[in-house]
Specification:
By secondary structure, the chain is an alpha/beta fold. The protein has six helices and ten strands. The strands form four sheets. The chain has a four-stranded parallel beta sheet, with helices on one face. It has a two-stranded parallel ribbon with strand order 2-4. The protein is globular. The two termini are 31 Å apart.
């Protein structure tokens, strides 16, 4: 799985564009090998310039060529920004990779910037690069969910986030010709956040009564997004109201 998110250059300066291209390559390198069946020249040049001695046999190269992946799976939470300017140090949080803050985007309560169009851009970039079917295996919004006296959470912010990203997917498929096999959210039920190790950062359609200290009954309650997403699934993404 690729932890995806297209890099934008911070400005139109060619050095910023180059920085974005280099940053994208750092992520694409692994999938370049898995999808194409060989090591890209930019990686070989990096090894050469860094003095790395990579022991690769002819048999290894044959195995890589004969066992490429059938589709590309990736996660998407946000786009990223790169610059050649070392003085730009205001960063946004993100899934594994932090980047320079994009002044045109809003952010979640944990500082992850929200960019639905960036998903369409990322889908097109990966499709154009590999021409293989794609599968989004992670996408979602981590937020503080406050239940009412009955344990119900009206998580409209999560619904809005998912709606916007599903619409971006639809545009990539129907307007751009991207072949997308499927989409799964992170995650269906509240769980301890893999990124921060806390329960307070919730992604699920089902609220779990548990706090960061381990207190709570573990009772499960359907959030507002549960019924909404059930409708999305039943309509194959055509019902987003």
């Amino acid at each position: 799985m690729l932890a995806a998110g297209q890099y934008y250059p911070y400005t139109s300066h060619p050095k910023d564009y180059w920085a974005a291209m280099q940053s994208d390559r750092e992520g694409y390198f692994f999938v370049d090998v898995q999808a194409r069946g060989y090591y890209p020249n930019y990686a070989k040049k990096y090894w050469e310039q860094s003095g790395s001695d990579i022991d690769i046999t002819d048999e290894d190269l044959i195995l890589l060529q004969e066992n490429t992946v059938d589709f590309i799976s990736f996660s998407y939470y946000s786009s990223r920004v790169a610059s050649a300017n070392p003085k730009l140090n205001e960063q946004t949080a993100g899934n594994i990779f932090a980047s320079i803050k994009n002044p045109y985007l809003n952010a979640s309560e944990w500082g992850w910037q929200i960019d639905p169009l960036g998903l369409r851009i990322t889908l097109n970039a990966i499709w154009d690069r590999y021409q293989k079917p794609l599968f989004i295996v992670e996408n979602g919004l981590g937020a503080v969910d406050i239940p009412d006296e009955n344990g119900y959470v009206a998580d409209d912010c999560r619904i809005d986030y998912l709606r916007d990203h599903i619409q971006a997917m639809s545009a990539a498929i129907n307007l751009d010709g991207v072949e997308l096999l499927g989409y799964t959210t992170w995650g269906c039920i509240d769980l301890v956040s893999a990124g921060t190790g806390e329960m307070q950062k919730r992604y699920g359609f089902i609220y779990v009564d548990r706090d960061n200290l381990g207190n709570g009954t573990l009772k499960r309650t359907k959030k507002k997004s549960f019924a909404w997403y059930k409708q999305v699934i039943a309509s194959n993404g055509s019902r987003l109201d």
